[in-house]
Hints:
This protein is an alpha/beta fold and 496 residues long. Helix content is 38%, strand content 23%. The strands form six sheets. Strands 15-16-17-14-13-19-20 form a seven-stranded mixed β-sheet, with helices on both faces. A hairpin with a 2-residue loop joins strand 6 and strand 7. The chain is globular and about 90 Å long. It binds nicotinamide-adenine-dinucleotide. Residues 147-152, 156, 174, 176-177, 206-207, 210, 225-227, 230, 248-251, 282, 381, 383, 409, 450, 454 line the site of nicotinamide-adenine-dinucleotide.
Amino acid sequence: MTRRIPHWIDGRETPGTSGRFSPVFNPATGEQTAEVALASTDEVGAAVAKAKVAAREWRHSSLSKRSAVLFRFRELLHDRSDELAAIITAEHGKVLSDAGGEIARGLENVEFATGAPQLLKGGFSEQAATGVDVYNIRQPLGVVAGITPFNFPAMVPLWMCATAIACGNAFVLKPSEKDPSASLFLAELWKEAGLPDGVFTVLQGDKEAVDALLTHPDVAAVSFVGSTPIARYIYETGTANGKRVQALGGAKNHALVLPDADVEMAADAVVSAAYGAAGERCMALSVTVAVGDVAQPLVDAIAARLPKLVIGDGTTPGTDMGPLITREHRDKVAGYIGAGEQAGATLVVDGREADVPADGFFLGTTLIDNVTPEMTVYTDEIFGPVLSVVRVDTYEEGLELINANPFANGTAIFTRDGGAARQFQFDVEVGMVGINVPIPVPVAYYSFGGWKASLFGDTHMYGPEGISFYTRGKVVTSRWPDPATSSVDLGFPRTR
Length: 496
Ligand code: NAD
């Protein structure tokens, strides 16, 4: 019988009762390895009710107790990261070192959240008026939900839950149904760390569970990471139901390579950022904009590196790139390569011809040159190991192209000229910018977020903006009677 992946409700694994399931595959072998329960509206309601009770208790826990739980969780996650990496690779397909990297970036968010006592400090204004003090405090929202994508099954939940829990909320996670097991591993670690039952919940599911969370009156806020059409839907539905929403969407990240760039350094950076995790990263570089004379040497340097990338099962040591998440997605990505070729772009390396394992959802690396902005290979988020090169004559032309793109998650400039880099940082309309750094994911004490179609809402994720998102500000204006006027003699002079 097929293994069934359950929910995690009120501190324990809970089998689904909806009778609906979704298959889970090992993308490296193409085999179905399990099926995951899909929560019904009623199951969501019952789990949120448990979370609501837990949230009431948890907000009473002291800051030092919360911090102690987070420290223990951090240690457990650190010590058991190899186990978690294996779980990620088995369902996502990314190579083990990359799965380890995702956990390391998630750990940063836990480490940040251990500082809750410092982060939740308010301000105080003594004597705002005579005898009047004003101060502000930040309080948790109650039950908050996170809806996460397949491509980072541990890191993205950690972006959200560490901060939400540190702030005193109960967190309900609806992970991707494509790789649901990492979320249960996190749940077990939270329990072992001493988090009270119900403060961290996993509801496996699809649109039905998402809609139930978006409309549930006891869910105060929703954090979402995924594709742009769903992000827009989550934002519109969640806010229409009175919730606070931050919804991070898709991406089309450009690298701008200036003629003075170190070509070898830029090629190394672009290759790792375009093809790492088979291009299934929201911060993957998918377009290289080559300015002037740098184009041909850069294309040659990238092309020279691609045959050296080892493609295969992510559990095999020495593998650089694993499979894509599903057969359908692999075929869709392959379709873009054909469309680009037909539209007149130059296929320098064709991933469809690569010698990859026959089983599993593999596709080789593709480099496609002379791409122009109206081609689908340029306009669409492909989310696979396909790198397009657009050739332009000037910096201005490259900048205009990047700023005209509806996505605005990340971008990177490659140059030796500090003035040019600074100008780019000033001019570019993108949320996260790298200067000779291909994947500028902010460290945990900054916040993560794109602009335009890459983020709906006004708060970026994790870091200081995460603290704001998961708390409500309250301002207290206070006046105490003059102790000298007390009917009880407190020992104050009567004439002050
Ligand atoms: P997705 O949008 O298909 O799914 C994300 C989540 O939404 C999943 O939990 C899924 O179950 C749920 N969902 C899917 N369809 C739904 C629907 N119709 N109604 C309600 N919920 C629905 O995204 P994905 O394929 O899992 O992940 C890849 C996408 O995520 C890419 O577009 C990538 O750029 C994006 N992403 C963005 C960031 C970022 O930080 N901006 C980070 C990681 C991934």
